[in-house]
Design a protein that fits this description.
The protein contains 7 helices and 16 strands. It is an alpha/beta fold and about 290 residues long. It starts with 8 loop residues before the first strand and ends with a helix. InterPro entries: Calcineurin-like_PHP_lpxH (IPR024654), Metallo-depent_PP-like (IPR029052).
């Protein structure tokens, strides 16, 4: 499929399968008969960081046929994640003969009429940003066409941003291994999004009444609550502060508390009612820790 300004853009989005084959097989089976303009994988195709580069190459060999099938259903674009060894000067899989198109880290690439990059500083209003690490401050302030990410294993959607959570979460660090989810995103010519959440395992969709300002969340289904911020409210104020710092073009060490609180309140409103006083207390504690 090719795209133009008068047609809805249809994307199949996923990430973080960590070398797992079963999750990709479920994506292939679940999208049989469908067509997409683009198929996007946000990295951590392998688990080489933990299992070793040789095992990572075997994992790439195993998953490649599934990516080849998906590439037949839409233009496949992908990046490497931290578990693919994509940190530091060595990039162990950069020469691997993988189907589709690699999105450059420090440049833009145009495929079937759409522009993609991993670099935020290269984004304009028609650019699709794809990177592995999640920048939650972009939930409110992203100025490109779309932003897709992964890495943190708790998905999120708001405005023009989607974190895809995971296809398969390994049992590393004592966590249970889980099958996750993927997404079909349709972007209308007017910029309106439709997000189809497709669960293949143990992920559920939720909107927290207390923290709804940070978007729709996709979390493991065994959690007692639908919201990661209800477990640790400091995480909530940390994200709110990051958003305000980004909007103000500053960093925590140089920010004025009153400006940060005013900016955040204008963006997120007074939810909960103690929002401003709690945020101020959080910022003051953070400043004391830094000093």
């Amino acid at each position: 499929m090719t795209t133009n300004d008068d047609e809805t853009l249809r994307l199949l989005c996923m990430g973080d399968n960590h070398g797992d084959v079963d999750s990709l097989e479920r994506v292939v089976d679940g999208t049989e008969g469908e067509e997409f303009d683009f198929v996007i994988h946000v990295g951590d195709i392998t688990n080489a960081w933990f299992d070793g580069v040789n095992e990572g190459r075997e994992q790439l060999d195993a998953v490649t046929p599934y990516f080849e099938t998906l590439h037949e259903r839409g233009e496949l674009l992908y990046i490497w994640g931290n578990r693919d060894g994509a940190i530091g000067p060595e990039q162990p899989f950069q020469d691997y003969d993988f189907p589709g198109t690699f999105i450059p880290e420090d440049d833009v690439i145009t495929v079937a009429g759409e522009t993609f990059t991993q670099a935020l500083e290269l984004v304009d209003d028609e650019t699709i940003l794809v990177n592995h690490y999640w920048y939650p401050e972009l939930l409110e302030h992203f100025e490109g066409k779309a932003y897709f990410s992964g890495h943190v294993h708790t998905g999120r959607y708001k405005n023009k941003t989607l974190n895809t959570a995971f296809l398969y979460r390994t049992a590393d660090h004592g966590a249970d291994a889980l099958l996750g989810a993927y997404f079909v995103v349709e972007i209308a010519p007017d910029g309106t999004w439709e997000v189809d959440f497709r669960n293949i395992g143990q992920v559920r969709k939720g909107i927290c009444p207390k923290h709804h300002a940070l978007g729709v969340q996709f979390v493991p289904d065994y959690w007692r609550q639908d919201c990661q911020f209800c477990y640790d409210e400091d995480d909530y104020y940390s994200e709110v502060a990051r958003s305000a710092f980004y909007e103000l073009g500053t960093v925590q060490e140089e920010a004025e508390t009153d400006e940060v609180v005013e900016s955040a309140a204008a963006t997120f409103g007074a939810t909960p009612p103690s929002f401003e006083s709690n945020l101020r207390e959080f910022l003051e504690e953070q400043a004391a820790d830094h000093s």
